[in-house]
Amino acid sequence: MALTDRTLINTTLHECHESVSDGHLSEDRTLERVKTCSWWPKWKKDVAEYCQTCDRCQKANRATGKKFGIIIQIQEPKSPWEIVYMDWVTALPPGGDRSYNACLVLVDRYSKTPMLIPCHKDDPAMETAIIIWNKVISHTGVFQNIISDKDPKYTSALWTNLHTLFGTKSSFSTAYHPQTDSLAERMIQTLEDMIRRFCAYGIEFKDSDGFTQDWCTLISALEPEYKTSIHSSTGKTPAMLEKGWNTRLPYDTLKKDLVDIHPTARSFKIMLDKARHHENRCMKDSKSHKPPDFKIGDLVLVSTLHFNNIKGPKKLKDSFSGPFMIKALHGPNAVQLGLTGELMNKHSTFPVSLIKPYSSSDKELFPLRKKPQLEIPPLEEGEEKKILKVLEERRTRNKKEREYLVRYKNSTQEDEWLIEKDIKNAYKLVRRFRHERKRKE
């Protein structure tokens, strides 16, 4: 049956894709359903766009294909303690003479050598800086770069000033994207496992002499053990790469025949070259990623993989939530979104690997389709309402002026028809709209 009326076309598309009997199936299956009952000009193009702009399909379907984002290699250090990973182990039982409840973890990117320092979870930035200055800098020298996750300690002005004083930079990783800080994260897991083996049944344990100890005392013994263990990514011990020899441990004194194990300068260089080769292998993963093409103002969906507070059964929750508007771009791999509703209190910066573009439905092609509520945050106090882009244009009734359908940036207000004189920077916006329309045609 040949169709010409857009209402009948929309009804056909709805019945062949969105009805309960069809269950939001794929584009190919929807094409087969439509093919058996009707035809109209450019019907394949309409079916494809109808399926691609389906709100339920975009939110419920899992992401397939290559992930967005490109792998950016962190600056390669030339010597130990140039680049340092930093993180905190929290929720530890009180230990030590000052009832420490957290542990500061620093890991040298060059040699993988860790430093474990007891501290308090709520230490201010100044206290953390003093700890680093007194207990770390004297052994390692001043760092060239510190890589850590986003933490209030780093966002404070005082901490930023201390970084400037030390001549270092702060490279912040993105929430829910721990690859930047994976070395410290892995060290934390190993540290917790090592402590748990001794303190599994309480916050204290007794050594072989019967003295009661806690985790603060324990890490002083565990740190050299880790330094003298072969690291999987380098094939050498952290101590060997940092200093050229392994730290002596108690069991070394039991050896009858001590052998000089200090490597020569040549063999030491060979070991470092092999370690660097192991580090560079991870860059091969870049083949499974593609560079993003997002712009400020674009509507996107965000993965719900790491959200545990969304209502409803976990197995049946949507794979994506939104759409949300992009408020800012942070480098090639992270974006800041305007979150609302259940996600309003979440950290608003996400890696591009967890988002995907949202395709809006064309009102003229599919007028019967219910428009989803755009979850765009309200304007902040003092923020000016700005026009993001022009969506459509038409002549007024007297045909003397043109009207343009505009979308506002960072506003809950729906799209609105305005005449040209009421639009700020109308020339640029209209010119961009016509250029994009011509490119699509």
From TrEMBL:
GO biological process, one term: proteolysis
SUPFAM superfamilies found in the cross-reference section: Chromo domain-like, Ribonuclease H-like
Keyword Transport among record annotations: no
Ranges where the Integrase catalytic domain occurs: 76-246
GO terms of molecular function: aspartic-type endopeptidase activity; DNA binding; DNA-directed DNA polymerase activity; metal ion binding; RNA binding; RNA-directed DNA polymerase activity
InterPro entries from the UniProt entry: Chromo-like_dom_sf, Chromo/chromo_shadow_dom, Integrase_cat-core, Integrase_H2C2, Retrovirus_Pol_polyprotein, RNaseH-like_sf, RNaseH_sf, SH3_Tf2-1
Domain Chromo: 385-441
UniProt keyword terms in alphabetical order: Aspartyl protease, DNA integration, DNA recombination, DNA-binding, DNA-directed DNA polymerase, Hydrolase, Magnesium, Metal-binding, Nucleotidyltransferase, Protease, RNA-binding, RNA-directed DNA polymerase, Transferase
GO CC terms in record: nucleus
Name recorded for this polypeptide: Integrase catalytic domain-containing protein
